[in-house]
Specification:
The chain is mainly alpha-helical. The chain contains eleven helices and two strands; from the N terminus they run ββααααααααααα. About 13% of the residues have low confidence.
């Protein structure tokens, strides 16, 4: 595949390859990171796109709690406010808060179950249609850049708030420990999204390789985007990282698998 250029975001096809599992409702994509590899799931403006009225209201309340908790944490530090102050900020009762989250740190971190907007997930999966069964679609990398960039564009918090939040999470052992525990679940779920798109099993080596690549690309692009003084758009930073990775891989020939005899 040639190096990436600006992609117009158009869908390649509306269907899915035969045998590809139907898109499921909740999706997660780990993109931004705090120290030691812990992943911080960010909230997007997605409440208006999913489910019926009751579900949309519940999603909107949950996102409001998460957003308020993160902004307060960024501004005051994790210990700088109480659950009561958080509830007052959102306009809910303590009882309502605990219907959504068991503790304040859970509200700050969100969860791997915080869904990517359905329209983005469906489009990302649909763009994998049309390729031959058993193969990886040739637009996977460019579609990932479009997908990740749109997620960033929909992020509720400002860049400055996100930077302060990441620093607050890194400084709080309880938050960091929970963030680390959520990483594996988030990766497994995105493997399921890739599986639905490519028509391959979640544990297929190609799906796992793509997951590893996307995680590494996010680890590189996220900190660069949030770095103080950065003026480059996220798409530019992520595309540069993708093209650098592509150049390294394309410069080498495929390796020959060792025979069972060689492995002895």
């Amino acid at each position: 595949m040639p190096p990436l250029k600006r992609h117009d975001g158009g869908s390649r096809a509306s269907g899915r390859r035969a045998g590809c599992p139907a898109p499921y409702r909740h999706h997660r994509l780990p993109l931004h990171f705090v120290p030691q590899g812990a992943k911080l799931h960010f909230v997007t403006d997605s409440a208006s796109t999913d489910g019926g009225l009751r579900e949309r209201k519940r999603t909107a309340t949950k996102l409001a709690i998460i957003t308020a908790a993160r902004i307060l944490t960024a501004e005051r530090g994790f210990s700088g406010y109480t659950v009561e102050e958080l509830c007052e900020n959102v306009g809910i009762s303590r009882r309502t808060f605990f219907n959504y989250f068991p503790a304040k740190e859970d509200a700050v971190l969100g969860s791997p179950a915080d869904e990517i907007p359905d329209d983005l997930a469906r489009e990302f999966i649909a763009r994998g249609a049309g390729s031959d069964p058993g193969t990886v679609s040739d637009s996977l990398l460019s579609d990932f850049v479009d997908f990740a960039t749109e997620m960033m564009d929909r992020m509720v918090m400002s860049r400055d708030q996100m930077v302060q939040l990441k620093l607050a999470v890194a400084a709080e052992p309880r938050l960091l420990e929970k963030a680390l525990r959520g990483s594996r679940e988030a990766e497994d779920t995105f493997a399921g999204i890739l599986s639905a798109r490519e028509g391959l099993a979640p544990r297929d080596p190609r799906i796992q390789a793509a997951l590893t690549l996307f995680t590494a690309l996010g680890q590189r692009a996220g900190p660069a985007f949030f770095a103080p003084g950065n003026t480059r758009p996220y798409r530019s930073i992520l595309t540069e990282a993708v093209n650098a990775m592509h150049e390294v891989i394309a410069s080498s020939s495929p390796l020959t698998s060792p025979s069972p005899k060689d492995s002895e």
